[in-house]
Design goal:
single chain, alpha/beta, Metallo-beta-lactamase, Chain A, Rossmann fold, 2 domains, 7-stranded mixed beta sheet, 22 strands, 32% helix
Length: 457
């Protein structure tokens, strides 16, 4: 291999924005995609999910996944429909999670298209799903498990290493060695101190570094999330209402369940019903049970935590929960209030002053969760407008993304300055702020690539 062979990097998503992670490394020898996620949030971004990528999908040899969140894996069925036919590599928990999320996402797309056609609120006639369950199953057939922390030969002179980074179960950063240069993709970096995950490993060499900047412009609060959760529960009970927690099914739901289980066991909150209504969340619990070496919980803790909740799977049970006027705690997907069971609860509860809606994760610009967090007085759910009369609270400290200081710490073991640092996966202010902070702390120059731009290195 010639060390001078040009390599092109296509920024197909999560550039200038948080969601839609997709990066194509194009070389003479192999074309490798890192992540293949859905855009979420503002309508103009979501519309891009319906567009084909400006690259030849059938010319991409491999897809490597940092982790299983929808904004990193949710475009795979569409990518395959446009010609991609290679293997999809990830750790075992990542592929377990990806299977759950893709099937759930496909089911939601099918159901929402059917509902839109039945109730006539779509501008498209007929409304069609972004992809179907059959499309998701075709994608899953391409999955290939790789070990964490070991060099994987992809082709002659090309190898990859998937390194634990603590964001969610199975998540990694990826070291890709190509033409004797190391390309490091951070994925989503986890927290140094997390209730469920261990601390992230750190890269030691990066010629070309791609680093997330979701919270690149801020530090997470230092409040005790367990105490915040306790106070929110107590205030809601005092009002005689229910606490609704829209939650990401992977890791965030399990963290909230863990904290609530602890609070109830310690008699810090009353013995009121606790419901986890997310079929996907229930499946993720089994991933935790089957991958003990990826997280901190013992098998016994997993069992006792689950026993403290009513785990809802059938939609009929959702309606039974809604019809029961007893104050309760409900955890339901999705985390940004963009779809899922939580919408059904909010239709009937968000107009009640006694309800509390607790947001516990990042709310992307344009998402329904962001609108609720920003204090909008009305939200649109299934084509109808609802007044927001519920109390809205936010526990930011539970984020599973590293903040600015944790990202800087994650960079601290890189032995020599990277040739180029690309600041990705962040809204513009967060990315620009992290860029300047890296310059201040390390003296390294960085760039913030634009969506659909191409860099040659």
């Amino acid at each position: 291999m010639s060390a001078s062979s040009p390599v092109k990097i296509h920024f197909l998503g999560a550039a200038g924005t948080v969601t839609g992670s997709k990066y194509l490394i194009e070389s003479r020898f192999q074309n490798i995609m890192i992540d293949c996620g859905l855009f979420q949030g503002v309508k103009e971004l979501r519309k891009k999910n319906w567009e084909s990528l400006p690259v030849n999908a059938d010319a991409v040899d491999l897809l490597l996944l940092t982790h299983g969140h929808l904004d990193h894996i949710g475009f795979i069925p569409r990518f395959i429909k446009t010609g991609f036919n290679g293997p999809i590599l990830g750790t075992k928990p990542t592929l377990d999670i990806a299977q759950i999320i893709l099937l759930d996402s496909a089911k939601i797309h099918e159901e929402e298209a059917e509902k839109a056609n039945k109730e006539g609120y779509s501008k498209h006639q007929p409304a069609a799903p972004l992809y179907t369950i059959k499309d998701a199953e075709k994608a899953i057939a391409h999955f290939k498990v790789v070990p964490e922390g070991e060099d994987i030969d992809l082709a002659e002179g090309i190898r990859a290493k998937f390194m634990y980074n603590g964001h969610i179960i199975g998540s990694t950063f990826i070291e890709l060695t190509l033409q004797d240069k190391v390309y490091v993709f951070s994925g989503d970096i986890g927290r140094k101190q997390d209730f469920l995950m261990r601390s992230p490993k750190r890269p030691t060499r990066a010629d070309y570094l791609f680093v997330e900047s979701t919270y690149g412009d801020r530090l997470h609060p230092t409040d005790d999330p367990k105490e915040q959760l306790k106070q929110t529960v107590l205030k809601t009970i005092e009002k005689g209402g229910s606490l609704i927690i829209p939650s990401f099914a992977v890791e965030r739901t399990q963290t909230i369940m863990y904290l609530l289980w602890q609070l109830k066991a310690e008699k810090e909150i009353p013995d009121i019903p606790m419901v986890m209504d997310s079929p996907m969340g229930a499946n993720v619990l089994s991933v935790f049970e089957n991958n003990q070496d990826w997280h901190k919980l013992s098998h016994a803790e997993c069992v006792h935590m689950c026993e403290a909740f009513k785990i809802v799977s059938a939609y009929k049970e959702t309606w039974e929960t809604i019809d029961d006027p007893t104050p309760k705690i409900i955890i339901a997907g999705s985390g940004m209030v963009t779809g899922g069971r939580v919408l059904t609860y909010l239709k009937y509860a968000i107009q009640k002053p006694e309800t509390t809606v607790l947001l516990v994760g990042y709310q992307a610009e344009g998402s329904r969760g962001r609108k609720i967090l920003d204090g909008e007085k009305e939200v649109k759910i299934y084509g109808k407008w609802f007044d927001v009369k519920a109390d809205v609270e936010h526990i930011e400290v539970l984020s599973s993304h590293a903040d600015q200081s944790e990202v800087l710490d994650w960079l601290s073991e890189i032995e020599s300055p990277p040739k180029t640092i690309f600041i990705i996966h962040g809204e513009p202010n967060a990315s620009e702020t992290l860029k300047e902070k890296i310059k201040d702390v390390y003296g390294w120059n960085a760039t913030v690539p634009e969506l659909l731009s191409i860099a040659q290195v």
